[in-house]
Amino acid sequence: MMRLPEFRFVSPRSVQEAADLLALAAPGEAMVVAGGTDLVPNMKRRQQTPKTLIDLRRIAELHAISNGDGLTISAAVTLSDLVRDRRIAHEYCGLWQAAAQVATPLLRNMGTIGGNLCLDTRCNYYDQNYEWRKAIDFCLKRDGNTCWVAPSSRKCLAVSSTDTAPALISLGAEVTLASAGSRRTLPLADLYVNDGIHYLTRRPDEILTQVRLPGAAGWRSTYWKLRRRGSFDFPVLSVAAALKFARDGSVEAARIVLGAIASRPVVAARAAASLIGRRLTDDTIATASEAAAEPARPLDNTDFPLVWRKRVTRSFVTYALRELRGDQVSDLRRHHGVLWTG
């Protein structure tokens, strides 16, 4: 049985109190926790060993979903709460699909949107117990000096496996980060860095407090997820796409984001740009799918052969764009074990 290391647990009642506690701690010695579905297993494997855990669950302002010019989701809202919200299912379908495919119902009941956005990067050589990792002399991400995915690399190549981040980036989301002395807002895409160790631009003294989505009028979105089992597993590839259509049926704006192929979600900007001003014909979709596959350079650090995963990127982008065009893709979704809203 893997046991947790010793730690101090505090449960503040406000964001300011939580931020003050973080500010008083040395970098890395205190961490925030809400659902704990990622952090607690990591602590058991001695991948993360904070001396203090700052609980966010009793902070009332972090549990709200509010309307306005768009939608604001506070960081401690659970994934199950997102899935139950019909506004999200109808207006931000890609986010709804992503949240509904995270892990299992029990874990979604505990896991939060903030936690999923800050999910630790993953790798076959890292996500093992302490004794296994010690037997290979650890890895670059924790306690070692070698990235076993690419031993000559000086950078950790662990993979971003968050489901909700690609969906939210495709929807143009922003996040707010709070510290003891200030708050700042940035595009969600800017929260991530392509480095398996330092994968977030969030400082150790900052708390992600909310996600803001712009209005969804005219937009359609979708999320496709590749995994070995049709439930529970982390993605080994994900595709999030959001399109805004003009009255004549052409694409007015587009975003395509790939997940689980690098240490951060990858924005396929050239693929999205190829759609602007065009109708979603088969040729247009094929061109965009080919362009989207170019930045997909999967490595041998997750499930399935890497060459096949790159090839499937083209297929999944094609499926996503066909779905946004209005094609009937329910059979394809069932075949791949991908959730849909039909």
Could you describe the 3D structure shown?
- This protein starts with 7 loop residues before the first strand and ends in a 6-residue tail after the last helix.
- Among the domains are: 113 residues, Uridine Diphospho-n-acetylenolpyruvylglucosamine Reductase, domain 3; 118 residues, Enolase-like, domain 1 (2-Layer Sandwich).
- Helix 11 runs antiparallel to helix 12.
- With 342 residues, the protein is of the alpha+beta class.
- The mean pLDDT is 95.
- The strands form three sheets. A five-stranded antiparallel beta sheet has the order 4-5-8-6-7. Strands 9-10-11-12 form a four-stranded antiparallel beta sheet, sandwiched between helices.
Based on the coordinates given, report the CATH architecture of the domain at 219-336: 2-Layer Sandwich
> What is the average per-residue confidence, as pLDDT, rounded to a whole number?
95
N→C terminal distance: 42 Å
What's the CATH topology name of the domain at 219-336? Enolase-like, domain 1
In percent, how helical is the residue content? 25-40%
Quaternary class: single chain
The spatial strand order of the largest sheet comes to 4-5-8-6-7
Number of strands: 12
Q: Could you tell me the radius of gyration in angstroms?
A: 20 Å
In CATH, what is the class of the domain at 219-336?
Alpha Beta
CATH superfamily of the domain at 219-336: CO dehydrogenase flavoprotein, C-terminal domain
Share of β-strand residues:
15-25%
Number of helices: 13
Shape: globular
Main sheet characteristics = 5 strands, antiparallel
Written as H for each helix and E for each strand, in order along the chain, the element string is EHEHEEEHHHHHHHEEEEEEEHHHH
Flag low-confidence runs.
Answer: none
Classification by helices and strands: alpha+beta
